[in-house]
Amino acid sequence: MFADRQPRSFLDTGALSRLAAVPLNARRAMQGNVSGRHTSPHRGASVEFAEYRKYVPGDDLRRLDWRAYGRSDRFYVKEFEADTNLRLCVVLDTSGSMDFGSTGITKIEYARKITGSLAYLASQQGDAVGLSCVANKIVRNIPPKRGPAHLMNVFDILEQAQPSGETQLVSVLHELAETIRQRALIVILSDFFVEPDLLRGCLQHLRFRKHDVTMFQLLDPLELNFNFRRPMRFIDMEGGPAIFAEPNEIADRYQKALQDFADELLAVVLESAVDFHPVTIDESFEQVLMRFLVGRTRTKGVR
């Protein structure tokens, strides 16, 4: 572990030690500024052979394969996979709806646990970490950097993040797609209560910029099951009007609307080739992250 100046409620040292056994891999080739463990889109010099190509004037003569020349009477150069470091950019939804929780933990608290754990794991393997807290705009933003001091700054911002205001996730993601210049692993944590058709455009925008995009959709069990038994006043946590309703009269329509929304969202993420993880916040965050990490060991970065 690292030496932190204060305890962090969102960090579980036992879970981190177990999760650290599985590397955090990118599904796409990364472009970092130092050597590392992730596949780069460029060729370089390492121990892993990639391919032969024909010699052209100016190539390093030390990379000529003389055995290939002896067999073919032509000059060929060996190329190897170049490895680089990863840029992890976490986008944390801090709109008002993230303050909901019926099981002793709110969505924002659960999101802090996932964000803090991923930031620590990435930092431990030499990768750069950044954080954007977003609601109706980018509330706080710290670009990805490496090092223990920077990680402490990320934790400070994460700890101070408070949910409020309405969601403008679509416009914010379009803005981040333009401002995050280099390829990155972008992890978005939200309940994604936005129109799926609008979300399609910003996800494709991020993919067009060559980013590796992961979505964690955080929902409370009560939002999924709608287990209300008496007349209730439902409050819009993002500032809209309250609604007084009899749950038995609207339960069927609510469940249908929720299922339609889930189906549309799933279609959008499949079409956009996004790594999608629907999560119920009464589930162990360690198990959620373990599935995420293990899944990425099977699809390590391609060019």
Commentary on this structure:
This protein is of the alpha/beta class. The chain folds into two domains: 13-26 and 85-297, von Willebrand factor, type A domain (Rossmann fold); 38-84, no CATH class. The protein is built from nine helices and ten strands. Strands 5-4-3-6-7-10 form a six-stranded mixed sheet, with helices on both faces. Strand 3, helix 3 and strand 4 form a beta-alpha-beta unit. The longest helix has 25 residues, at 247-271. The relative contact order is 0.17. Residues 32-47 have low confidence and may be disordered.
Under the CATH scheme, the architecture of the largest domain is 3-Layer(aba) Sandwich
Question: What sequence of helices (H) and strands (E) makes up the elements?
Answer: HEHEEHEEHHEHEHEEHEH
Number of strands: 10
Uncertain regions: pLDDT < 50 for 5+ in a row?
Answer: 32-47
The shape is: elongated
| % residues in beta strands | 15-25%
Spatial strand order of the main sheet: 5-4-3-6-7-10
Q: What is the tally of helical segments?
A: 9
What's the CATH class of the largest domain, please?
Answer: Alpha Beta
Termini separation? 33 Å
Helix content range: 25-40%
From the alpha-carbon coordinates, what is the Rg to the nearest angstrom?
Answer: 23 Å
Q: The CATH topology of the largest domain, please?
A: Rossmann fold
What is the count of structural domains?
2
Q: Biggest β-sheet: count, sense, barrel?
A: 6 strands, mixed
Structural class: alpha/beta
Output the CATH homologous superfamily of the largest domain: von Willebrand factor, type A domain
